[in-house]
Amino acid sequence: MYVPFESLPTDSRIWIYQSNRKFSDDEMNEIETALQAFLVNWSAHGTSLESSYQLRYNRFIILAVNQEVQNATGCSIDASVEFIQSLEAKYNVDLLDKMNVTFKLGEHIAHKPLIDFKKMVKDKAVTENTIVFNNLINNIEEFNESWEVPAVDSWHSRFF
Length: 160
Fold this sequence. Notes:
Protein name: ABC transporter ATPase
Number of domains: 2
């Protein structure tokens, strides 16, 4: 069951998928339509999941589930991963590789393999104050407070 993102409690579970490239506005419209269609029918053991999404920066897909109503389970999580994989195939993008880093360079959003990010740290092309996207967060509260943070305040800090 799709609900507005803002109506979900802050302890709702989230999953963040980052694209290795920026989506066009037309692609974003198509993805939004596909997400709504998926979430309307997303369920766990026959019980509808109260769920929502956000699209950010033409690059991030954020799925959320209110686990107070119904927990996402293995099969429902598998269904969401299959949905994300279908987007990867349709748009020829990578959404599931967690070994990439997305960060801000001024107003630009950069996406680099982890090894390249480490080299940028060594070369001082990024600093502890570089805003990174911490996609390892687990719920909406963490998303609101800790998704876009200086690298020093995220798991990226180990590289400085």
